[in-house]
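Before drawing any conclusions, I looked closely at one protein, both as residues and as discrete backbone shape codes, quoted below without any editing:
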Amino acid sequence: MEKKIYDVMIIGGGGAGLTAALYASRGNLSTILFEKLVSGGQIASTDWVENYPGFTEGVLGTEIAQKMEAQALRYGTKIIYEEVTHLSKKEGIFEAVSTETSYAARTVILAMGASFRTLGVPHEKELTGKGVSYCATCDGAFFKGRKVLAVGGGDSALQEGIFLTRFAERVTIVHRRDQLRASSILQERAKMNSKISFVWDSVVDKIEGEKKVEAVLLRNIKTGAIQKVAADGIFVFIGHDPNSNLAKGLVALDDKGYVVTDSSLAASVPGVFAAGEVRQGAVRQLVAACGEGCAAALAVQAFLDDHR
């Protein structure tokens, strides 16, 4: 085990984790951050970002991720590109066991984010960011005057579908059942919206397109009939799953697996904080994740000051 005990270990290198690392490092805390893939989290796989403050013409998602990473490194964050497989607390010290070795720290910030549930159909992965999206607020403005599909039948699907009508010419909501699960008021709003239509009892079989989405094949689950729908984009709203397996047994999670925190972003175990989409009640936007990363780092500083 590495002898050094860090002031804070941050698990997850998305917007929340990298911002937490920046503030912790600049606050003169010894900081280590773990990222199992590439820095930036979901934003690193986003083609173009137009709603991040300060970039009036928009910016590549990878560029934001790289700049955040460089800024954290500049102030002394140690970034370890390994997956943490186990996290525990013993005698007031946290131990993170990675795929390579183990590390120790006085505090932890959980920033593992959440994963969009995907359809798992052909070309979905290849066309993500090229017409396939999981966030209307992020990408809706790219589809002004276009025809798009929204997949799902819950509150999120209808909320995001209604939001898309601000831009799209036509929004077709595809649901695998013949009734929606969303709240009554959202169903009423969607059905009254002249830009929204519905395809019932259907699932996506395939997304077609070379460099961008061009059409979607829908299969009726009752008849087996296939219909090809021309579309410029497809938005998938079938839920999220928090990446919180590491936290199970360590801190309290809600019934959906999100980390429960108080107003200071402190989890149920002293010294553990959470920021970003892994946290119960978080807003799924980069700017919000960054704000929570900042708040978590400041909370860590206050915690350490009280426990030195």
